[in-house]
Amino acid sequence: MDDTNRTIVLAKRPDGVPEKDTFEIEESDVPSPEAGEVLVRTLYLSVDPYMRGRMRDAESYAEPWAVGEPMEAGVVGEVLESNHDRWDAGDVVLGDLHWADYTAASGHSLTPVDTDLASPSAYLGVLGMPGRTAYFGLLDAGDPSPGETVVVSGAAGAVGSTVVQIAKRAGCRVVGFAGSEGKIEYLEGELGADVGIDYTETDDYREALDDAAPDGVDVYFDNVGGPITDAAFSRLNVDGRVVVCGQISQYNDETVASGPRKLGGLIATRGTVQGILIWDYAPRFEQATEQLAEWVANGELTYRETVTEGLENAPDAFLGLFEGENVGKQVVKVADFEG
Amino acid sequence: MDDTNRTIVLAKRPDGVPEKDTFEIEESDVPSPEAGEVLVRTLYLSVDPYMRGRMRDAESYAEPWAVGEPMEAGVVGEVLESNHDRWDAGDVVLGDLHWADYTAASGHSLTPVDTDLASPSAYLGVLGMPGRTAYFGLLDAGDPSPGETVVVSGAAGAVGSTVVQIAKRAGCRVVGFAGSEGKIEYLEGELGADVGIDYTETDDYREALDDAAPDGVDVYFDNVGGPITDAAFSRLNVDGRVVVCGQISQYNDETVASGPRKLGGLIATRGTVQGILIWDYAPRFEQATEQLAEWVANGELTYRETVTEGLENAPDAFLGLFEGENVGKQVVKVADFEG
Question: B4-125+303-333 and B129-279: same fold?
Fold first, then answer.
């Protein structure tokens, strides 16, 4: 173990798109775990679009980060020292830790990672927060029936790629929006979507939907917001459901963007629009992870990861999310798993 | 009985706000009821905001009216001649009939009106479509709990004034938006709203809501759309519910208006937005009417009507809806009830 700990802190609040100087790497000694704490070496950390919200000085569902303080992330790491009954050195754990090489964390805030079941990083993706979000968001809020049409934006991302596959499994026609030829191939090939729409190749998303979803849209799972969402609303069927999971196209805006008013259309369709937040499903996390792990194990659910190497590159990995650079789950690999 | 029948037809499709020449009065002989039909003399006819949608050449939940054909409305009328087993001359009935002095209607399309229970015109308002819309929209879709805050737009109108009272009855704090000093007095006095906000007196609806709904908005019942709705969304509480019943501020627009994008806020609140259409509740209409009639009879539910005299003034009564000229239900009195 190196005796230096690098920690990425929020250097200043971004104005619009975050830039390099939004982040700063600080060096310090590796922390010593206090009573009840364990020292965790970061193996992988997760960067996620919702983190942009935590950079604002505004209350929302996640507490804002303080300037000068460490950024936080879902981390899979290895226990190096433990002052907590539950953990021993060598255990692999999941927790909300720092963007850092090492974090001293209270033992009760961690959950175990079964590396026989899946790779450690999968617990940040398909078996973790994004996978559960897809699972509950689609099946609970979206409530799809066989034969219905499900449209997914951000369909090649961590959440979207899982939604696509669960919707196919539920017997639906599935249409996914994504932003490159490679992602469309991924959608229509490996993920089994009926149609992928490359939103960089057309501006007329309504027309694209008329072709891809000729029977209209029964469930729209929204990770993105903006014009794709406007188009999906315009093609919503009677009793259609919109699941609002993310609005990545808006997260860097400093003022509220305008768009076509859409509520009138909901009267004709009696549509339901529901915002979801994964923490509301916490009592059922275990159920979701078991089910997702079973599907992964039997090959019904596949996943990809975009792995950025090196803690120092975590800011770039985060910024890449807004450029659509990731396919599947974007993670940062910080150290090799020697377990 | 006069032997001339006046019928108001859609003379041409309006472009934006309908004008006088949107409508035309045609004179013809009083129709003769065929087998299974009854001849109904119109006593009152209902003009409603949703009718603007039927003037468009666009499919929606209600079929568009054809140019040159009679406009239709909820009508309370008296049976003059009957070729249908169920009805006798002198019966008072409710049906979807013409904007006309007389309509020959199929007997099975009519429902009875009990004039001992309430005045005939009440069946177009508090005991009819607007009352039922308020009842199911608030209690089913809005699902308010005691102590919650319910905000209503168009609160002095036919639907809104009923929503306000049912929400108070449900133990809620109730805030209503309306557009004149007289309407605010009506809201805060007769209807029992906690606060009425005169939207003609301020542009800052968010600030107005901060004062009127200091604990935020749990249920927003929307009859209006536009900036009032934007403000209500911005003050929605966690697990808040928005019931989209009407969007009268948009109905005369020929292009889709723009407004601030609101879906992002639904993630933080896990809010639900639901469009409602009263016909979906048809199997339970009788239940609603019985309950509403009971509340009217025991004084728990009051209602007002704005009565325009004369069939020839029905177009003005309709256009007045968009100017907010009505308090409570706008009806047109066509003939005296001689029953």
Answer: no
**Ramachandran region, residue A328 (left: φ > 0; alpha: ψ -120 to 50; beta: rest):** left
Separation of first and last alpha carbons in chain A:
14
Rg (CA), chain B: 20
Q: Residue B47's pLDDT is what?
A: 97
Tokens linked to B67 = 């140019």
- B161 SS3 class: helix
Segments of chain A with pLDDT less than 50: none
List the structure tokens of A5: 């700990």
Per-residue model confidence (pLDDT) at position B339: 60
Cα–Cα–Cα angle for A147, A149, A154, rounded to 5 degrees? 140
Ranges of each domain in chain B: 4-125+303-333, 129-279
The string of pLDDT tens digits covering residues B213-255 is 999 999 999 999 999 999 999 999 999 999 999 999 999 998 9
CATH architecture, domain A4-125+304-333: Alpha-Beta Complex (3.90)
Q: What are phi and psi of B222, to 5 degrees?
A: -105, 115
Chain A / chain B CB contacts < 8 angstroms: 108
Q: Phi, psi at residue A15, to the nearest 5°? A: -110, 105
Cα distance between residue A47 and residue A59, in whole Å: 20
CATH 3.90.1530.10 fits B4-125+303-333, yes or no: no
A88/chain B closest Cα distance in angstroms: 37
- In this prediction, residue B2 has a pLDDT band, given cuts at 50, 70 and 90, of low
A45: phi then psi, degrees, rounded to nearest 5? -125, 155
**Mean pLDDT over each residue of chain B, to the nearest integer:** 95
Residue of A nearest to B239 (CA): A275
Q: State the pTM of this model.
A: 0.94
Q: Which of A133, A176, A190 is nearest to A158 (CA)?
A: A133
Amino acid at B172: C
CA distance B32 to B34: 6
- C-alpha span between B202 and B212 (Å, rounded): 13
Average pLDDT (B130-142) is 98
Looking at the structure, give the CATH architecture of the domain made up of residues A129-279: 3-Layer(aba) Sandwich (3.40)
What pLDDT, in 10s, does the model give residues B252-269? 998 999 999 999 999 999
Contact A273, B273 (CB under 8 A): yes
Complex-level ipTM: 0.92
Residues of B with CB under 8 A from a CB of A: 60-61, 222, 225-226, 229, 244-247, 250, 256-261, 263-277, 280
Contact B261 A265 (CB under 8 A): no
Q: What average pLDDT does this structure show over B54-64?
A: 84
- In angstroms, the first-to-last Cα distance of chain B is 14
